[in-house]
C-alpha cells in the first residue's frame, strides 16, 4: 500500500490556482525528489502532505486513509531552522519527546543518542548561535528524527548551506535514511540534488495550475556519495534527460514573473 498519495489534489488561494489535479503516490521506503521552477507549488504540496493545508479539491491519503488534520506519520524539515535559540542543542532535540509527555531526563538521554548519530555528540550544551549552519541543520534533523516519523517531508532543507556543507549533509541524510528507509518527499529546485538523493524524480510544471509533467526513476546504485555520483556518466545522462523537460518550465516561470 502507498504510504502517501495525492489524489487529484487542487489547491487554490482565492482566485489563484497554485496546483491542479495532482496525483502522486509514494511507496513505503521510497525517496522521491520533487523539482519544479520557483513558485510552482512544491511547498504547497508538502503542506498538504503534512496536513497543514487542506486541498480545495481532491484528497491526500496516508496508508490508504484520507488525511484529516495533521499527518501523524510525518516529520517536517524546513529551509529555515525551527530550533529555539534559547535552548541548548540537547534540549532542542529532546523537546518533541517532552511535548509528548516524556520526562526531561529520559528525553535528554535519547536526545544525546540522536546528537551522536548526527555527529554532534560533543556539543550537547551548545546554543544554536554557537553552532555553524551545518551543525544547526544536524540539530534540526535530529529533532525531526527523534519523534520517529515514517514519512519525512523536506522543503529545501540544505539550500542555505555552502556547497561543501550541503554535500556533507546530503550524505549524512542518505546514511541515516539507509538505516531504516523512511519514506521521503524532498522538495528542491536543484535538479542535481534531487537526482543524487532520490529513487524517483518528479517534475512539476510552472504555475499557476501546476501539476506533475514527468517522472523519472533514478537507478543509480546505493550507497551513494553525492559528490562522486555527480561525475558518473549515468548521472549526467539522467540530468540531461530531466533538464530537457525542466528547462522549458523554468523559462515559462521566468517569463510569467
Ligand atoms: N497562503 C497563500 N496565499 C496566497 N498565495 C499563496 C499562498 N501560499 C502560496 N501561494 C502561492 O502559490 C504558489 C505556489 O507557492 P509555493 O510556495 O508552494 O511554491 P514553491 O514551488 O514552493 O516555490 P519556491 O520554489 O519559490 O519555494 C505561489 O505563486 C505562491 O505565491
Automatic annotation (TrEMBL):
Q: Which SMART domains does the entry link to?
A: AAA (SM00382)
Q: Which UniProt keywords apply?
A: ATP-binding, Nucleotide-binding, Plasmid, Transport
Which SUPFAM superfamilies does the entry link to?
P-loop containing nucleoside triphosphate hydrolases
| Protein name in the entry | ABC transporter permease
Give the range the annotation lists for the signal sequence.
none
Domain of life here? Bacteria
Q: Name one Pfam family in it.
A: ABC_tran
Natural source organism: Thermus brockianus
Tell me the ranges covered by the ABC transporter domain, including all copies: 4-231
Amino acid at each position: 500500500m502507498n504510504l502517501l498519495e495525492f489524489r487529484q489534489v487542487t489547491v487554490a488561494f482565492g482566485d489563484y490556482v497554485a496546483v491542479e489535479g495532482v496525483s502522486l503516490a509514494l511507496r513505503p521506503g521510497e525517496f522521491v525528489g520533487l523539482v519544479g521552477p520557483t513558485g510552482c507549488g512544491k511547498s504547497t504540496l508538502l503542506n498538504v502532505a503534512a496536513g497543514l493545508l487542506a486541498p480545495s479539491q481532491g484528497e491526500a491519503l496516508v496508508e490508504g486513509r484520507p488525511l484529516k488534520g495533521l499527518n501523524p506519520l510525518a516529520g517536517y524539515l524546513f529551509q529555515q531552522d525551527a530550533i529555539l535559540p534559547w535552548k541548548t542543542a540537547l534540549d532542542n532535540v529532546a523537546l518533541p519527546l517532552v511535548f509528548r509527555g516524556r520526562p526531561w531526563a529520559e528525553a535528554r538521554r535519547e536526545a544525546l543518542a540522536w546528537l551522536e548519530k548526527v555527529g554532534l555528540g560533543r556539543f550537547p550544551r551548545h546554543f544554536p548561535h554557537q553552532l555553524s549552519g551545518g551543525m544547526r541543520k544536524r540539530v534540526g534533523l535530529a529533532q525531526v528524527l527523534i519523534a520517529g516519523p515514517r514519512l519525512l517531508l523536506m522543503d529545501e532543507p540544505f539550500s542555505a548551506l555552502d556547497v561543501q556543507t550541503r554535500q556533507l549533509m546530503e550524505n549524512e541524510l542518505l546514511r541515516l535514511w539507509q538505516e531504516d528507509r523512511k519514506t521521503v518527499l524532498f522538495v528542491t529546485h536543484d535538479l542535481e540534488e534531487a537526482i543524487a538523493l532520490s529513487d524517483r524524480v518528479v517534475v512539476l510544471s510552472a504555475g499557476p495550475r501546476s501539476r506533475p509533467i514527468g517522472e523519472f526513476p533514478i537507478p543509480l546504485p546505493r550507497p551513494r556519495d553525492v559528490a562522486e555520483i555527480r561525475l558518473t556518466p549515468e548521472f549526467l545522462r539522467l540530468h540531461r534527460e530531466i533538464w530537457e523537460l525542466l528547462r522549458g518550465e523554468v523559462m515559462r516561470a521566468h517569463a510569467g514573473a
